[in-house]
Amino acid sequence: MNLARTRTALLAIQRYEHRALGIWRLGNEADVREMAAAGLISASLSDGSPGSRTSASAITEAGRRFLRIFPAGYRFCDAGAMRSV
Fold this sequence. Notes:
Elements: H1 3-15, E1 21-23, H2 26-37, E2 41-44, E3 54-59, H3 61-69
Antiparallel strand pairs: 1-3, 2-3
């Protein structure tokens, strides 16, 4: 799970918490599935049938805990930039 994308998604879901946030991009849908499986959010997941779509509706207590640990403005380390000496 990408921590920066997870935090961005949780902040968006929190901002619109009183309505379902529809997920349209396939990559984002995979992230939402991971966050739902991890217990960070409540979501309705697409079953692949016509008209079915994925939407995130609320942040769970675990999701709120995640945002307390990694609040908006927290800077994640760029692991790709780290080099062994």
